[in-house]
Each structure stands twice: as structure tokens, then as C-alpha cells.
Please model this.
Amino acid sequence: MFEDFDIYIDKRDLKRIKDKDLFETVEEVFDTRTVLTLYTLMRKKIIKRMNGVISAGKESRVYLAYSYSDEPLAVKIYLTSTAVFRKGILKYIMGDPRFQGFKPSDTRKLIYMWTRKEFRNMKRMYDADVKVPKPIAFLNNVLVMEFLGEDNKRYPLLIEVYNELELEDLHRIYSLVLEELVKIVCRARLVHGDLSEYNIMVRPGIDIAIIDVSQAVDLEHPNFYDFLIRDIRNINRFFRYEVGLDSVLDEETVLERIKPCLVKRKEG
Ligand SMILES: Nc1ncnc2c1ncn2[C@@H]1O[C@H](COP(=O)(O)OP(=O)(O)O)[C@@H](O)[C@H]1O
Ligand SMILES: [Mg+2]
Model:
């Protein structure tokens, strides 16, 4: 929806923003540029107001916010000050044909690119009917998406609830996860790359949602297969050893389901 751009800071604007609630919510954590990015998203009527923090990670923070039609939103803001981040994400960008010719010189630009990558990955998955939040907009280091939760409370992550669930539900969740894993590869032509109990939400009625798709890579990425195997192993390890499910398929059986789509890729 938006291209990256540098924000021109007008002193009068800055003063006006400083009077707003927005500044109070995010001021201590973010630099002026990030606050202005949020302000721009508000001016463009994507975000009406920012609410409390949902999650504070090393590399990003996620906030609850509201749209102009009062729909809850999740706003993921990447921290532009994390230097370790840089090294970690380069391997996902270099080698992906979508980022050919990219020279990683400026950390801030790299993070803007990372944000755009997450938006595009999410969009590709969403368009392929993968159960991810609906991507809404991105600008610089800010990604706006559908909020997954009820009454301002996000749905729990699989890691947070599996202990309280019936074995029958866990079996269903395992099948649903495999379904999404196959869809991500066969329909979205991507691999998630960080699929685990920490990036799967459990919806009531028993359904799931997959989140955190920034590191997903294209089928053409040279490490595509390694990431795919790693995702399968992570999921299987969790369900077999943490959950104790005896219906976990072996790696080969899961791969058999995916292989037909990988063959098509070589022909086409
Ligand atoms: N669309 C969303 N709706 C509700 N909560 C979300 C949403 N996206 C992320 N979260 C919450 O924010 C946390 C961090 O988001 P995530 O994308 O996994 O980033 P990271 O793990 O890199 O910090 C998630 O574990 C979840 O609790
Ligand atoms: Mg995560």
C-alpha cells in the first residue's frame, strides 16, 4: 500500500503531535521518526488511536490500536535501534529473488525492508487463504494488521494453552497446523521459517492462526528446503514430546504431502 519514504519533520507538526495521546503511549520507547510514522498512519486514516502494548519483544513491539471504523488492529513496530537484529535477518533477505540487488548498508533501511517483507509475506499467505491476520498497511518500520482476539484480549498462543486443552483438541490443532504448513508452500509458494508453538494462536471453537511471518522465504530461496525441514521438525517435536500426541506423522509422510507442489515448481 505504501512505499518507503523518509518523513519530513516540520517543527510545528512535532509540537502538535507532542500534545497528542499517541505520544504518551509510545514516546518512551520510540524515536521521533517512528512516532511520526505512526502519526502519518493516523493522518492517512489507517489508525485512529493507539492503545496498550500487547507484546514487547527484543526486536519489535505489538500494540492494540483502533481503526476509523473502530475495529481493533494489531500494530507491530520494529525497533530501529537493535543492532543484533541486522545480522540475524540478512540471511533471509540475501538469496530471496524478491530482494535481488539489495545492498544492506543502512540498518534503518534494512528494518524498513524487513517490515515490507513481513507485509508482503502476510499478504501472499492471506491471498492464498492461509490463516494469518489480514494485512492492512505498512509504512517504514510499522506494520498494521487485523487484531486476533476478542474484547481487547488477544487469543492465546499454543504454548500458553496446550496444557489446558483436551487431547482431542490438540490432535485437531496438529492437523490444522499441517494443513496450513502445506498451504503456505503449495498455495503461497513460501515457507514460514519460524513455525512453532510460539507463532501459532489458538482460536475458540478450536481453530488456529499463524503469525510472525517476516522471515518467510520464497520457494526459490537457496535455503528453502532447510527451512521447510526445520519447520516440520519443530512442529513434530512439540506435538510428540511436549504435548505427547501419539498421532504425530513422521517427517517423510509430511514431506510426501508437500512434494507434488515442489515438482510443479521445477516444471513451471
Ligand atoms: N494480529 C495479532 N493480533 C493479536 N496479537 C498479536 C498479533 N500479532 C502478534 N500478536 C502478539 O504479539 C506477539 C509478538 O508478535 P510476533 O509477530 O510473534 O513477533 P515477535 O515474536 O517477533 O516478537 C505474539 O506472540 C502475539 O502475542
Ligand atoms: Mg513470534
In short: Confidence is low (pLDDT under 50) at residues 1-6. The chain has nine helices and eleven strands. The domain at 11-146 is CATH 3.30.200.20 (Phosphorylase Kinase; domain 1). Residues 41 and 238 are 39 Å apart (CA to CA).
